[in-house]
Design goal:
The chain is mainly alpha-helical and 469 residues long. It folds into three domains: 136 residues; 118 residues, no CATH class; 148 residues, Leucine-rich repeat, LRR (right-handed beta-alpha superhelix), CATH 3.80.10.10. The protein is built from 18 helices and seven strands. Helix 18 links the parallel strand 6 and strand 7. Helix 3 packs antiparallel against helix 4. The longest helix is centred in the N-terminal third of the chain and has 27 residues. About 4% of the residues have low confidence.
Length: 469
C-alpha cells in the first residue's frame, strides 16, 4: 500500500475546498449588482468582506488544485487553462476588495462583478470537464442514457473486428470518462492499444491470455461496494455479457487486429458474442451451457449474505435467473461456502480460483448439483476432494490448473457424461498419463497446456555474449 505525501493529501481536498469560494464570490457579485437599486443599498457594507473571504478561499483552492494536478491523472492542457482561470478569479477577487477600500466607482465595481461571474462560470466548466469529461453537459442532450448498450448492435458479429467494433466501443462508453485522453485516474489510459498494454501506476492492467491475472477483469468482478470496483458504483455498470466478452478477449490474447471469427470460441462464448448481433433470435441469445429450463429468482437475503462476505454474485445473463459466483475477493472458508447452498438451483457457474479451498471445503461444493462451470485452479484441492464432485452430473467445465490432482483423481470424473472440458496445466498429472486420460475421456477436451510458440525469422531476439570462462 502506497502512502500519500502531504502535498498529495492536500491536493485531494481540492474538490471540497473549491465549492465554498465559488458560493461566496457569486453571493458577493449578486449583492454588488443588487446595490444598483437603492432599495438594496443596505447590502453594500457586506460586499467587501464577502470578496475578501471568497478571494482567500479561491487562493487556497488554487493551491490545492495545483497540488492535485501534479498527480498526472488529468489532461495537462485542460489543467493549464483551468489553473490560470482559477488564479485569475483569486487575483480579481482580492483586487476588488482593495478597490472597495479605495472607493472605486460603482460602474467599475458592477462591471467587474459581471466579469467575475463569467470567469467563475468558465473556470467551473473546465473543472467539471476535467472530472466528468468535456462532453459532460452536452451528453445529457443526446440519446445516451444509462440503460443504453455500450456496444452498438452488429449486423454479423463473426465478421466484426473484435477490438474496433466491440472492445473499443465498450471501453469508450464505460471507461474513457476516467481513463481517457482528458483524465487518467491512477495514471491509466484505455483509449489506445499502447496505453492499455502500458497499464497504470499499479503496473500491468491487462495480461494477454490470462483473464484471472488481469487487473481489468478483477476489478470488474469486485462487489460494487468495494472502493476498487470498476466502474465506480455511481457510473453505468457493465452487463454480464459485456464482462464475459472482455474475459473472452483477454483469455484469447487480447488481440487488437483479429476478427471475431479468427479467435477461438467455445459454444458458450459463441452465444455471448451472438447477444451483440442485430436481430439475433431471442432463443439463440442464451448461453449454451446453462439449462434451457428457466428457474425462479434466487432468495435475495441469501444473495446479500454472500455479497457481504465478499463473494461476487451476478446473473450469467442479464435476462436470466441463473447465477455466477466468484470468490475473487472472498475467503473460501467453510462458513462462507455454506452460504452457497440456498442458491443451489440458480448457481451454475462457480469460480474458486486462487483461494484456500481444500478437500473439506469440497463437501460444500458437491452439494451444488446444478453446477455447470467450476474453476478450482490454483487451490489446495487434491484427488480426495475431486472425488466428491463425481456425482454433480451437470458439470461440463472443470478447471484444475495449478492443483495437485493426479491422473487417478481425474479419472474419478469419468461418470460425468456431460463433461466437455477439463484444464490440467501445471497439475500432478504425469506426461505418461496424458495418453491414458485421452482414451478415458475420448469425447472431452483435455487441455494440458505447455504450448510452445515457434520463433520466426522476423521476430526480435535477444543475443547475449557467451559467459566468461
Amino acid at each position: 500500500m502506497t502512502l500519500l505525501s502531504i502535498p498529495d493529501l492536500i491536493g485531494r481536498f481540492h474538490p471540497i475546498l473549491v465549492h465554498l469560494p465559488i458560493g461566496i464570490l457569486l453571493l458577493g457579485c449578486l449583492f454588488q449588482l443588487l446595490t444598483i437599486n437603492a432599495k438594496f443599498s443596505g447590502l453594500k457594507p457586506a460586499v467587501p468582506l464577502i470578496y475578501l473571504l471568497g478571494g482567500l478561499g479561491a487562493v487556497f483552492s488554487s493551491v490545492s488544485g495545483y497540488l492535485l494536478s501534479q498527480s498526472g491523472d488529468y489532461d495537462s492542457n485542460m489543467v493549464g487553462i483551468h489553473q490560470w482561470l482559477g488564479i485569475s478569479v483569486s487575483v480579481i477577487s482580492l483586487s476588488v476588495y482593495s478597490m472597495y477600500k479605495k472607493q472605486a466607482k460603482e460602474v467599475t465595481l458592477n462591471l467587474i462583478a459581471v466579469v467575475l461571474i463569467i470567469l467563475i462560470t468558465v473556470t467551473g466548466h473546465y473543472g467539471g470537464s476535467l472530472t466528468h469529461g468535456s462532453d459532460y453537459i452536452s451528453s445529457a442532450l443526446k440519446d445516451e442514457g444509462k440503460g443504453k448498450a455500450a456496444i452498438p448492435p452488429i449486423a454479423n458479429v463473426q465478421q466484426a473486428m473484435t477490438y474496433t467494433h466491440m472492445i473499443q466501443p465498450l471501453l469508450q462508453n464505460r471507461c474513457y470518462s476516467c481513463h481517457g485522453a482528458e483524465k487518467q485516474k491512477g495514471k491509466l489510459r484505455l483509449d489506445g492499444k499502447d496505453f492499455i498494454l502500458k497499464g497504470g501506476e499499479d503496473g500491468k492492467t491487462l495480461v494477454p491470455g490470462s483473464a484471472e491475472e488481469s487487473e481489468l477483469i478483477k476489478r470488474l468482478l469486485l462487489p460494487p461496494s468495494n472502493e476498487d470496483h470498476m466502474p465506480p458504483k455511481e457510473k453505468p455498470q457493465l452487463t454480464a455479457e459485456e464482462i464475459a466478452l472482455l474475459e473472452w478477449w483477454v483469455k484469447q490474447g487480447a488481440d487488437f487486429n483479429k476478427k471475431v471469427a479468427d479467435m477461438k470460441q467455445s459454444e458458450q462464448e459463441k452465444a455471448v458474442l451472438l447477444s451483440f448481433q442485430t436481430g439475433a433470435a431471442k432463443k439463440e441469445n442464451k448461453l449454451a451451457d446453462i439449462p434451457e429450463k428457466e428457474v425462479g429468482q434466487a432468495d435475495a437475503a441469501a444473495v446479500d449474505k454472500l455479497k457481504q462476505a465478499g463473494v461476487v454474485v451476478i446473473p450469467v445473463l442479464s435476462s436470466s435467473n441463473y447465477l455466477s459466483a466468484s470468490f475473487v475477493t472472498a475467503k473460501a472458508s467453510a462458513d462462507v461456502l455454506k452460504l452457497l447452498e440456498p442458491l443451489k438451483k440458480q448457481l451454475v457457474w462457480l469460480n474458486l480460483a486462487n483461494t484456500a479451498l481444500d478437500d473439506k471445503g469440497m463437501l460444500e461444493v458437491a452439494k451444488l448439483d446444478n453446477l455447470i462451470r467450476l474453476n478450482l485452479s490454483r487451490t489446495p484441492v487434491t484427488d480426495k476432494g475431486l472425488a466428491l464432485i463425481s456425482k454433480v452430473n451437470s458439470l461440463q467445465y472443470v478447471n484444475l490448473v495449478g492443483t495437485k490432482v493426479t491422473a487417478t483423481g481425474v479419472e474419478q470424473l469419468k461418470p460425468l457424461k456431460g463433461l466437455n472440458s477439463i484444464y490440467l496445466y501445471q497439475t500432478a498429472v504425469a506426461k505418461d498419463d496424458e495418453a491414458k486420460l485421452k482414451k478415458v475421456f475420448a469425447k472431452v477436451n483435455l487441455d494440458f497446456g505447455g504450448y510452445v510458440v515457434p520463433t520466426l525469422e522476423k521476430d526480435t531476439t535477444e543475443v547475449k555474449p557467451p559467459a566468461a570462462k
